[in-house]
């Protein structure tokens, strides 16, 4: 199974990237490898000019296409997700997330911006065809704190929510159907019989 982490922060080190790192760590402990796109590293001129054919945009879109699961993290600015993430999502094909499960993550200065996940980001993810959008995880600056060493620490309550989200990804999405408890063997349509 393939997981793609999309970092939507315009800065290299950010609280939203710390949430993404925490999910990556939880997945790696379970033996799931992930790829990562740092949107800020996608050619800025291609993002600003909406250059769909730019090699960096084409490569990023191919990564999105290959992934079965997308985890997207963004800071919230003025009650919306980051502009750099918006520019990136606008360059993806209309069906870029078709059939995919998406876990949205966001950080913001206060709890007042929590609904940005549902009112700003979720509609865009749905418009790109996401099959299943898991409940988003929002963390305030107080829940993702900077240590004296310059690293970010995720508060235990956010860590517990990330544990739950990762568990859902593993149990509902990433494990093959044959490993699911009580899974039925696939039956082709030609074998279906109906009696009245």
Number of domains in the coordinates?
A: 1
The count of DSSP E runs of length 2 or more, i.e. the number of strands, is 9
- Choose one word for the global shape: globular
CATH domain class: Alpha Beta
- Give the helices and strands as they follow along the chain: EHEHHEEHEHEEEEH
- Ends distance: 41 Å
Q: Look at the structure and name the CATH superfamily.
A: Flavodoxin domain
Low confidence ranges? 177-181
**Which structural class do you get from the secondary structure elements?**
alpha/beta
Briefly note the CATH topology name: Rossmann fold
State Rg.
Answer: 18 Å
Helix content class: 25-40%
Q: State mean pLDDT (0 to 100 scale).
A: 88
- Total number of helical segments? 6
CATH architecture: 3-Layer(aba) Sandwich
The proportion of residues in beta strands is: 15-25%
- Report the major sheet: 7 strands, mixed
What do these coordinates show?
The chain has helices at residues 15-29, 44-48, 55-66, 83-90, 116-127, 156-174; strands at 3-7, 34-38, 69-77, 80-81, 101-108, 132-133, 137-140, 144-146, 152-154. It has 196 residues and is α/β, with parallel strands linked by helices. The chain is globular, with a radius of gyration of 18 Å.
């Amino acid at each position: 199974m393939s997981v793609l982490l999309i970092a939507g922060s315009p800065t290299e080190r950010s609280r939203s990237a710390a949430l993404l790192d925490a999910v990556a760590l939880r997945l790696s402990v379970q033996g799931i490898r992930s790829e990562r796109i740092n949107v800020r590293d996608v050619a800025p001129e291609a993002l600003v000019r909406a250059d769909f054919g730019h090699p960096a945009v084409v490569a990023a879109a191919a990564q999105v296409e290959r992934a079965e699961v997308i985890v997207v993290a963004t800071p919230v600015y003025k009650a919306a997700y980051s502009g750099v993430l918006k520019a990136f999502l606008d360059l993806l094909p209309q069906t870029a997330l078709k059939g995919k499960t998406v876990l949205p993550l966001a950080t913001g200065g206060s709890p007042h911006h929590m609904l940005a996940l549902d009112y700003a980001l979720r509609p865009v993810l749905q418009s790109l065809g996401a099959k299943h959008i898991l409940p988003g995880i929002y963390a305030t600056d107080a829940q993702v704190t900077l240590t004296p060493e310059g690293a970010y620490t995720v508060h235990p309550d956010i860590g517990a929510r990330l544990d739950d989200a990762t568990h859902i990804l593993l149990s509902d999405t990433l494990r093959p159907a044959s490993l699911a408890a009580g899974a039925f063997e696939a039956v082709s349509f030609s074998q279906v019989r109906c009696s009245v």
